[in-house]
Amino acid sequence: MEILTARLKLREWKEADKEPLFKLNSDPRVMEFMPKLLSKEESDNYLEVIKLRFEEDGYSFFAVELIENQTFIGLMGLSVPQFDSFFTPCVEIGWRLAYDYWGKGYATEGAKASLDYGFNELGLSEIVSFTVPRNIRSRRVMQSIGMHYVGEFNHPLLPQKHPLEKHSLYKIKKE
Ligand SMILES: CC(C)(COP(=O)(O)OP(=O)(O)OC[C@H]1O[C@@H](n2cnc3c(N)ncnc32)[C@H](O)[C@@H]1OP(=O)(O)O)[C@@H](O)C(=O)NCCC(=O)NCCS
């Protein structure tokens, strides 16, 4: 199972991805809008959760690799959020790329292909995305792939009054 775009391969995970995934999950620039940086053990556990979601749902966040040199540059794809809110159950689209690869259109390119996969291969009728309001880079990707802003919600997995509690929600329908 994989998704190919002009420059990217979204594929299932390999053992060799663990180290670059840890670099990503422990980089303060990449994790600016996440609750915390991950230790190696937490990053490995995060990957185990992704693999479990592949087993249970049939899909989850893919590893993203550059076709030209097979370099791992991050993660992206569709996943079922594991919390309850007014818009769940649902399928989210998400992305996290290594800092050196930002600003080259990779997130937008992979996200468009992920939407196509969700609507046409998985038969989904709607896909959501969310991030903290200050994460302008991520919100621009949401807008440029055609998602529309729904409003704000408090993320139920974060404590009340946590600085990252408030999130902006976007949606897109198949049609
Ligand atoms: C959010 C994130 C995935 C964006 O990745 P990205 O690859 O830099 O995004 P893109 O390159 O597709 O888009 C960013 C800009 O690059 C520009 N760009 C540069 N070269 C481009 C090209 N060849 N094609 C298209 N766009 C290009 C785009 O115009 C876009 O700018 P704009 O939004 O001002 O128009 C990345 O910043 C990231 O991993 N952040 C940390 C993790 C995170 O916050 N994830 C989301 C949490 S919900």
Quick structural summary:
By secondary structure, the chain is α+β, with helices and mostly antiparallel strands. The protein has helices at residues 18-25, 40-57, 106-121, 136-144, and strands at 3-4, 8-11, 61-66, 72-79, 92-97, 126-131, 148-154, 166-173. The strands form 2 sheets. A 5-stranded antiparallel beta sheet has the order 1-2-3-4-5, with helices on both faces. It has a 3-stranded antiparallel beta sheet with strand order 6-8-7.
Write the layout of secondary structure elements.
Elements: E1 3-4, E2 8-11, H1 18-25, H2 40-57, E3 61-66, E4 72-79, E5 92-97, H3 106-121, E6 126-131, H4 136-144, E7 148-154, E8 166-173
Antiparallel strand pairs: 1-2, 2-3, 3-4, 4-5, 6-8, 7-8
The protein binds coenzyme A.
